[in-house]
UniProtKB/TrEMBL annotation:
GO terms for cellular component: nucleus; tRNA (m1A) methyltransferase complex. Keywords: Nucleus, tRNA processing. The gene is LOC102655836. This is tRNA (adenine(58)-N(1))-methyltransferase non-catalytic subunit TRM6. It comes from the Eukaryota. GO terms for biological process: tRNA methylation. Residues 292-301, 311-322 have a biased composition (Basic and acidic residues). It is found in: Nucleus.
């Protein structure tokens, strides 16, 4: 029953919309729409359907470039058109003068508006193209792929997984996920030894939650494993964690904690954290008081000057003009009084917060939960994905790692890991240190056209791995 519910598209879930080789993440809403290039697609039809369902984009007559969805069992393929037509031997006689297509833009647009399928539109384009039959077989195939990308009207709703989410973000902007390539991510999971049981610690300084989502996916839901996700900011980056549609039980295995609050609470106790909060509140209270005093003195000076100006105007201008001046002064005084009242209320709220003991904030409870976990048992694995220099981070987190347990550090640049390697090499409780880089190259495998991909990432970053011993 649970598997069936997980495979049904419901409101609030994240899905991946795939059109040919293009993928996009979409959160399901009641009357949601999605922009696919320049096309606006109404997505309410996918609610209640199963994942991996294919839909056809049908144009709406009253709205331009707006489509609604209709479920289909199979899609059209344009490859059949190549088998029906002859091809040329070379392209030397073809001149690209822009006049080979007989159909005008208006006629092509009318074909789209008439509701014809993508196969029928492309067939019309081929019939009215003078040079298509003279092209080689490979050139005709490239032409069909180009037209298919433009006129293809079928989308498939995918269920999110780590591989597809990584593919979307890496193609969109790989800097958003810290240039973390898929082979580097897989090795990060392997060297940190993430399993379904035990406690694991992750430090991530900005990868949109990709390492956390991958590690939590390996831990699972019906397990005894926990993941402490340490981050440097006030709010963790968890876009990809939410996109995985984890169950509530599985999300309880993830504990998002600020690293500075975690270390302060562990070493100094709860009183030190609360004192730090009260100091910040006192600073805010003092700043507000100083601002109010400055505004009061400034307003007194302004009122004194305004009174002088009003006296001069009353002596030199007519009675009706003096009435206008009085009205303007009343509005100024009213705005000054409202501003002072607002700031006094903020100051009084801050004073009341100091005197009245409030409930513990949620982040403090999460931090206390993480401290209790590392106090009761050591971590089985430690992973660090850092944009800053990782030396101080690994030194601060190594005491929470268990004996004979692995750690792995990912960084985009080698120099930072080299310095970290030299410092850790001098420690007697760290062994089997390895610093290496990955080189992954994908290949296009087609008949008579097998070669490495021309456009590929030059580096997947660097990894530093090791073990902590007693």
């Amino acid at each position: 029953m649970c598997e069936n519910e997980d495979n049904i598209i419901t409101i609030g879930k994240y899905v991946i919309v795939k059109k040919l080789n293009f993928k996009k993440i979409y959160k399901v809403t009641i009357d949601g729409t999605l922009m696919l290039g320049k096309d606006l697609v109404q997505m309410h039809e996918i609610i209640g359907k199963r994942f991996w369902t294919t839909f056809e984009m049908i144009p709406m007559k009253d709205k331009k470039r707006t489509y609604f969805l209709k479920e289909v069992l199979e899609t059209e393929s344009l490859n059949d058109l190549l088998n029906e037509l002859p091809s040329g031997t070379d392209n030397r006689s073809i001149v690209d003068d822009g006049k080979s297509q007989k159909l005008s833009k208006e006629e092509i647009f009318q074909l789209q508006e008439s509701g014809k399928s993508s196969k029928e539109i492309v067939s019309s384009l081929i019939e009215n193209n003078k040079s298509f039959l003279d092209r080689t077989e490979y050139s005709q195939e490239k032409y069909l792929k180009k037209k298919e990308k433009k006129y293809f009207r079928y989308i498939t709703i995918w269920k999110p997984n780590i591989s597809s989410l990584h593919d979307i973000y890496f193609k969109l902007d790989h800097n958003k996920i810290g240039n973390l390539r898929m082979d580097s991510l897989s090795q990060l999971l392997s060297y940190s030894d993430v399993q379904s049981d035990g406690l694991y610690i992750l430090y991530d300084s900005g990868s949109h939650g990709l390492p956390a989502a991958a590690m939590l996916n390996r831990i699972g839901s019906n397990t005894k494993g926990y993941l402490i996700n340490l981050h440097p900011g006030n709010v963790p980056q968890a876009a990809l964690v939410h996109a995985m549609n984890f169950s509530t039980e599985q999300l309880t295995r993830l504990i998002n904690v600020n690293i500075y609050s975690f270390l302060r609470l562990y070493y100094q106790g709860e009183n030190a954290v609360l004192n730090n909060i009260s100091k910040k509140c006192n600073l805010k209270h003092n700043d507000l008081s100083n601002k109010i005093k400055e505004d009061e003195s400034k307003n007194n000076n302004e009122n004194h000057i305004n009174n002088k100006i009003s006296r001069i105007k009353e002596e030199n201008i007519k009675e009706r003009n003096s009435d206008n001046v009085n009205e303007s002064n009343e509005t100024i005084d009213h705005s000054i009084d409202s501003n002072l009242k607002r700031k006094l209320n903020e100051c009084n709220e801050c004073k009341f917060a100091e005197v009245t003991p409030a409930k513990k904030p949620k982040w403090l409870l999460e931090t206390q939960r993480a401290v209790d976990l590392v106090t009761n048992s050591k971590a089985r694995g430690l992973a660090i994905v850092a944009k800053e220099h990782p030396l101080n981070i690994i030194i601060a987190l190594l005491p929470f790692l268990g004996a004979s347990r692995p750690f792995v550090i990912y960084h985009m640049y080698r120099e930072s890991l080299q310095e970290t390697y030299m410092v850790l090499k001098q420690k007697q409780n760290v062994i089997n240190l390895r610093l290496f880089s990955n080189f992954l190259r994908s290949y296009q495998v087609l008949p008579d056209r097998t070669h490495p991909d021309i456009l590929s990432s030059d580096t997947g970053g660097y990894l530093l791995t090791g073990y902590l011993v007693q």
